[in-house]
Amino acid sequence: METKPYLIFKQNGLLCGVEVGCVREIFFLPELTPIAEAPQDIVGAIDLRGEILPVMDLNLRFGYLWQGYCLTDSAIVIEWQEFRVAIIVNEVSEVKHIPESAITPQLSYGRDKAEASHRFFAGFARCEGDIIMLLNLDGLIGYSPDKTGAEMPVSASGAHSWAAAGKVEGKNLPLGINPKLLAEDAKVLSQPHVFCPNATPEEKAIFRERANNLKLLGDRGDSAAINMSLALVVLNGEYFGINLEVVREFADIRQVTPIPCTPDRIIGNMNLRGEILTLVDIRNVLNMSADTKSLSKALVVEIEDLVVGIVVDEILSIIFVNVADLATIPAALNSANREYLRGTAFYEEKIIAVLNLHKLLTQGGVVVDEEV
Fold first, then answer.
1. Which among 121, 47, 35 is positioned nearest to 77, based on CA atoms?
2. Higher-confidence residue: 128 or 80?
3. pLDDT of 142-154, one tens digit each?
4. Measured distance CA(48)–CA(214) in Å, rounded
5. Model confidence at 226, in pLDDT bands (50, 70, 90)?
6. Looking at residues 336-345, what average pLDDT do you find?
7. Contact predicate 34/47, CB 8 Å
8. What is the CA 36 to chain-centroid distance, rounded?
């Protein structure tokens, strides 16, 4: 049965999921910088290692009122068609592998089809007694209402409002909007915007420190995030972490075609939705015994101009580790292993070896030189 991994998170009491292959990074919510003329659900931007990244408030995108933020909120950086945006969520939960058979693409409400369609959700999944709403990134990021009147209202304490669009004194107000709130909005908008105005001085300092840390990493030329997102995989019973930034997607292995006159580490080619993907086994480079009897899972990674499928035994989860917390490589590990490791981390009392996949693929002899 074909399954697909989703990162599960909670937002405003809703249980939602986004495809793991689209997740690039997760960190606690930092202070946001307001952006003039941005859509109402884009509540600001952050400087993420030199990249100005827009930040979306899912409450506003879904049509709810603005509710403010707290220190336990997180930002998930997602990538869709080469566009990157951070979405604010209340709590990141776990990764779940959901079979296609458990997903209902659309719900029927017995109403007009156009009215009942979902723009922001690709389906609804049954998973261990829960119903999880799966994000449709095409609609979530790309959809834009045809009319200004179709945009979402926000509360009196929000940074954006109908008053900002000139709809005051009860003129052209959406049904249910209280004109008194708009008067309060006008007062808020007459003052300089302050991120999370109801936060305590201590909380504001933490939000600001998080933003400065994200920015300083770029100023130092350090490409690692405060929290590195790792795909946790198993090879021969050992745990390895692969930086999620180079992982394009997770894939099930099907119908492998062997390639003649290639080293044993080249498993063969696989058709991945029309793309010919070469599968490689990195275990021999790590001085591990190769075992290709059970080919089931692969990580599709993209490094520079190289796209390959890394064969693994299992894909367990996505974890997040602070780069500063990476431990040195134990001396007991073979020197060949040490060369392609960034460090080690702990996960549920197990040691994880964090791979330097860029070095392994480009200098470890995994890639076949076509000129030879």
1. 47
2. 80
3. 888 654 444 444 4
4. 5
5. low
6. 76
7. no
8. 25
Instruction: Answer yes or no: is pLDDT of 280 > 70.
Output: yes
Do residues 325 and 276 lie in contact, with contact meaning Cβ atoms separated by under 8 Å? no
* Domain residue ranges of the chain, discontinuous segments joined by +: 3-218, 229-363
Model confidence at 331: pLDDT above 60: no
Strand order in the sheet with 297-303: 247-252, 297-303, 306-312, 275-280, 266-272
DSSP secondary structure letters along 258-281: --TT--TTEEEEEEETTEEEEEE-
CB atoms under 10 Å from CB of 179, counted, come to 14
Q: Which fold has domain 229-363?
A: OB fold (Dihydrolipoamide Acetyltransferase, E2P) (2.40.50)
3-218: CATH number: 2.40.50.180
**pLDDT the model gives residue 25:** 79
Count CB atoms within 10 A of the CB of residue 184: 15
Q: Rounded mean pLDDT of the chain?
A: 77
pLDDT at 195: 85
pTM: 0.60
Residues in the chain: 372
Q: Which of 71, 69, 52 is nearest to 60 (CA)?
A: 69
Looking at residue 162, its pLDDT comes to 35
Contact (Cβ atoms closer than 8 angstroms) between residue 103 and residue 1: no
CB neighbour list of residue 269: distance below 8 Å, 6 or more residues apart: 256, 257, 259, 276, 277, 278, 279
On the question of pLDDT at 213 being above 60, the answer is: yes
Contact between 131 and 109 under an 8 Å Cβ cutoff? The reply is no
Do 67 and 79 contact (CB within 8 A), yes or no?
no
- Confidence band for 54, pLDDT divided at 50, 70 and 90: very high
**CA atoms of 86 and 92, how far apart (whole Å):** 13
- Asked, colleague to colleague, whether 3-218 and 229-363 share their fold, the answer is yes
Strand order in the sheet with 314-322: 314-322, 227-235, 238-243, 350-355, 341-347
In sequence order, what are the beta bridge partners of 49? none
- Number of C-alpha atoms within 13 angstroms, CB side, residue 335? 0
Cβ atoms within 10 Å of 32's Cβ, excluding its own: 24
